[in-house]
Structures are given as structure tokens and as C-alpha cells.
Task: inverse folding
């Protein structure tokens, strides 16, 4: 007797893979001394060293200093995603965000560390803080 597909034992479909949780995104606003908020060159050195020390991979960056206030905008593209900062020294404020993907490893603790070290570098006082699980 030949075995036909309709006579084979029933096999349940494979279990679905666990849902992918892309990572943690922190969005914040902080107060800081105007001198820190004008220090684009120091910030560039700080972020470069921080990215390297934490084992992240930079794939490009842009820093732009505004002539009117000497505030700056910086965006660092990372293989893991990005971080950005926008400063307004005339108001003593900065907005900051960092998102790291969990594609290769769980980066939740690293995202929080980037944020905490950024606050320390800028001698900042947190005003608003949001965590978004992607």
C-alpha cells in the first residue's frame, strides 16, 4: 500500500516566533549651563568617546552651530540607530533623544547609560523624561 500525503500523521504548525521588541527610545529635555550648551566641540569629543566605550558603531554624524546663539544641533547615526541633541543656551535648555535597537543584543541598559552620562557631561537637570518601548 502506498503512503499518500493525506494519510501521514498530522503535525501541528510550528509555534510562532517570539515578537521582536526593537528597543528602547529615550526622549528628554534638560536644563544645563549655557557654556555647556554652546560647547559643540566638547560634545562631539564626549559623544565620540562614549559611543566607542559602549561598543556602539558610528556610521556618521552632523554637528551644526547656530551663529545667533552658538547653540548647536547634533545627530549621530549608529548601526544600532541614533542619538541627537538640540541646544538653546539662551534658554538654558536642550532636547535629547537616543534609540538603540535590540537587533543583536538587549540595549536597554546601554540606552539608559548614554542618557545618564549625557546628563553628567552637561551638568544637567532633567526637566522631562519619556521612555518609549519600540
Result:
Amino acid at each position: 500500500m502506498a503512503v499518500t500525503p493525506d494519510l501521514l500523521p498530522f503535525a501541528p504548525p510550528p509555534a510562532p516566533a517570539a515578537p521582536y521588541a526593537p528597543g528602547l527610545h529615550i526622549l528628554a529635555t534638560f536644563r544645563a549651563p549655557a557654556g555647556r550648551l554652546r560647547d559643540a566641540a566638547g560634545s562631539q569629543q564626549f559623544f565620540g568617546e562614549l559611543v566607542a566605550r559602549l561598543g556602539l558603531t558610528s556610521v556618521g554624524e552632523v554637528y551644526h552651530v547656530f551663529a545667533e546663539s552658538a547653540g548647536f544641533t547634533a545627530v549621530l547615526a549608529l548601526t544600532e540607530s541614533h542619538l541627537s541633541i538640540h541646544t538653546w543656551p539662551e534658554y538654558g535648555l536642550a532636547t535629547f533623544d537616543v534609540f538603540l535597537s535590540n537587533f543583536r543584543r538587549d540595549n536597554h541598559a546601554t540606552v539608559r547609560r548614554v542618557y545618564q552620562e549625557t546628563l553628567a557631561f552637561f551638568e544637567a537637570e532633567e526637566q522631562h523624561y519619556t521612555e518609549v518601548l519600540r
User: Anything to note?
Assistant: The radius of gyration is 22 Å. The chain has a mean pLDDT of 92. The longest strand covers residues 23-31.
